[in-house]
Amino acid sequence: MAIVDGAQPAFSGDAKSITESTIFVLTILFWSWFLNWVSFRFESLKWLTASPPMTLVEDGRLCRANLRKALMTREELTQQLREEGIESLDRVHHVIMEGDGRISVIKKEDA
Known about the structure:
Blueprint: H1 2-12, H2 18-41, E1 54-58, E2 61-62, H3 64-69, H4 74-83, E3 92-97, E4 103-107
Antiparallel strand pairs: 1-2, 1-3, 3-4
Helix pairs in contact: 1-2
Domain YetF C-terminal: 43-110
Main location: membrane
Family: Belongs to the UPF0702 family.
C-alpha cells in the first residue's frame, strides 16, 4: 500500500520529479527486503517480520482475547470457517491464525 501511495504522485503529475517517487518506492522495497533478510539470517530478530501463530478457537470455544488481538470479528471468523465447509464451532478442535495471516482449521475427529 505504501508503494502505491508513494508512486501515485509521479503518475498523477503532482510530484516535483519522477526521481522523488522512484527514490521513495526503492527505499520501501529496500527496507522490506532488508528486514526479511535480517530476520532470516538472525533467528533472534525474527520477531521483526513474523508473528507467532495465535489460537482463535479451542475445542469449539472462541478465544475472544486472541480474536481481539487479531482484529477479527466473530462474523469474519465464521465466514472463514464456512469457506472451509464448517457450519458450526462445535465441529472445530482448533482454529489458528498463522503468522502470515492465513487461517488453519483443525476439525474434531468425530466431525
